[in-house]
Every structure is written in C-alpha cells, then in structure tokens.
C-alpha cells in the first residue's frame, strides 16, 4: 500500500506509460504538449491548445493530476508538475510584451518606446477573473521549482517622457504611467516608483497628493513655493526638495518662469511600492529637505578641485538626508539620487545596478544628438554594450533605464552635460541588493577567470579559454585538498 499526498491509501498498481498519460491529459484538457511527458527531446517548447477545448488553468491541471492520475515515482510527478506550470506559462506568454532593438529618440508624443509595442500591449493586462478560494487549502498553490523559480514578468521598458509635454498647455499633472506595460496595481513608472511632470502657469497653483513614504520634486524650470503640513519651501530652477509621509495635499504656486510661460517640476514618489504591499504609511521616516542649485554646484566644484580628481571620469554628488547619514546615505530610505556631470568629449563607461533609474536630462548641450546614453543587457570583450538601445538627451526630458542593464553616457559636445537619475536604490541599498558594477572591474575579473554572480553569459572565446585554464589549475590543486562537501 502507498499513501497519497491527500492521506488516502492506494493499492499498489502498475503505472501507465507516459504516452497513456499524455493521451489522458489531451482528452481531459485539450492540450497537446509534444515531448513534455516523454522527455525525448522533441519540440516541447510549443504548446498546442486544441481549438474545441477551453483554456486550461494551472489549478485544473493540478487537481486532475492529483485526483484522476495514479500515484507515480518522483520523476514522473516532477514531469507532470513541469507540464502544469508550462501550460500556465504558455497561456500567459500571449500577454507578454514584444521587444525590439532600435534607437529611441525623444519626440513630441506622450512617450516613445524602444522596447515594447504599445499597440500590442494595451489589452495584455486585463484582469483575469478567478474564483475566490473557499478555504485556506483552496488558496494554496504548489509549483515545480525549475519552471517557477524565475517567473516571467513584464519587462521594464526603455521609454522616453519628452520635455515638450511640460512646455505648453494648461496647469496640470502629466503622469509617466507605464502600468499597462508593467502590470502595476495602480499608476507606476517602475514597479516601485511613479514619475510625473507638473506644469504650473505663472500666477497659478496646483495641488498634489500621494499615499507615499517619500516624495521628491526637482525644479526643471521656474520659481515659486510649495506649502504643506511640513511648512513652506521656496524653490527655483535647479533646486530639489523631498517630503516624507504627508496626510494632506501639497499646494504648489508658480511666481515666475524664464521660459514657456510657466514652471515645470519633476515629481517622483513611492506609492506603487506601497500599493504592491497593500499598506499605508503611518510613520514619518525622514525630515523634509531642500537641495538648492547653488549648493549642489558649489559642492561639485569643490570635488572637481579635490586631490586626485583631475582625471576623474565621473564627477557628481550623491544626495542624502540626515536620517540616512549613518545607514544608506541616500535621498530617503527608499529613493536615491545623483547629480552627475559628463565633461565635453567624454564617455562614462558602462555600469549597471539592480534598481530602475528614472533619468532626468538636466542639461544636454546643443546641437541635439551630441549627448546620449547607450544601454543593453550584455557587454563584449572590450567592455562595450552589445546591441545597445540609444537614447538621445534633451533638456528637461526623462528616460527609463531598466534594472540590470549596462549603460554608458556619451558627451560629444563642447560643453558639460548633466543628468539627475532618481531610483528606488535607497531600498536596494538597505537590502544589500543594489549590486552596482562597473564594466572595467567586471572585464578584469573575467580575464582572471573569476565570475561574481554575473548576469550575462560568457560566450567570448578568450573568456572561455581563460576560465578553462583557471579551472584546470583548480582541479589540479584539488588533488592535495580534502573534500569537505560530503556529497552536498
């Protein structure tokens, strides 16, 4: 006798062949997964739904495998678990964004997308109605590890939010909402952050409100003031201020503007993170703070003339808060920001980090196209981005850099360019998962035959030869070292 996972006793009996199980599943659910049960190397990446049958849910497959099919050895069960997860993933695959690789220049549309087809994605995230589980056990789901450990989620796209949006029109908030692409539970620009422009015509006012622990406002253009329960702050072009949890609204007024008949603010907050967690802020985590343009530039100049900085490739200042001084040294406990300068005729070599960057091009010297960012998933043997997407900078425009992507900044003009990325890297720094890396360091490691959790594949022959030689040396050394792995 054997005992099933449900506690029922089953008589010992002959297990059906994989072909018989395949036929049973096909008949029961209208699904034909070639090779999935046989393990014969056939085309098991293509699931063929039969047109006369309704779509199959993962729960249906699990219930059927538990109740309709006999008990089987671990290997057979594992293959069926993989099949169940595969059926569900293939159903979801029709709703994934399609990615292309081409340049994305800043234009006059609401935003341009270099990675995702907007038209094809509009209906991808219609909510699927499912029955509410009627018990604790009914809400439980169990997945085969290999097929579910790294689930396919919508990718963060490379998208541009052009400056033209805040240069004309009425006083208003202009959201940079990518929730249709990302599947967020509310408006979002990245999974954790929401970015918007605020346009305020001179002499007018507007209010903003967010269920957030952190809000940041960068002044793209104009001067004025913002009042809230935290007090009144006066601001001007190039300033940045942050506010913590705010119960009420923030009231913004524009008193003057040097162009476009009004002020423009770049507003970012972390409500998408709280929406995902299903929580509301109940504690002020940091004091409000103001970073003036004059103080920022003064600090940059001090660093520029500091010892050893005459040949520095990167020149910028990280923005922090008194509350994070002894911990993350970030803008807030969730947000991170850097005012970064790129000198004339300079390239800042590729780097990567796990946080999403929402990059504000503060100053992109004329002519257009002389300052740009190249980004992609991989590096070549020389540390250059492979098949990069190019984003040309324009004053007052924002672009998204996806998490984990290598990106380099290029200034081919005769003047200094400035960029202000705002990220959710305060949270990542606290979690010790930011993992910022620079191309030169990684290439040096690979040439030594070392890999430290790299996110890209090594296919270059030179790297493979180095790794092979290094491994041979380690294998030879192993002969003199006792094995303490004990088979683990």
TrEMBL record:
- Molecular function terms, GO-annotated: dioxygenase activity
Domain of life (superkingdom): Eukaryota
Q: Which InterPro entries match?
A: GDO-like (IPR047183), RmlC-like_jellyroll (IPR014710), RmlC_Cupin_sf (IPR011051)
Q: Return the Basic and acidic residues bias intervals.
A: 10-21
Region listing for Disordered, in residue ranges: 1-55, 102-122
UniProt-recorded name of the protein: Uncharacterized protein
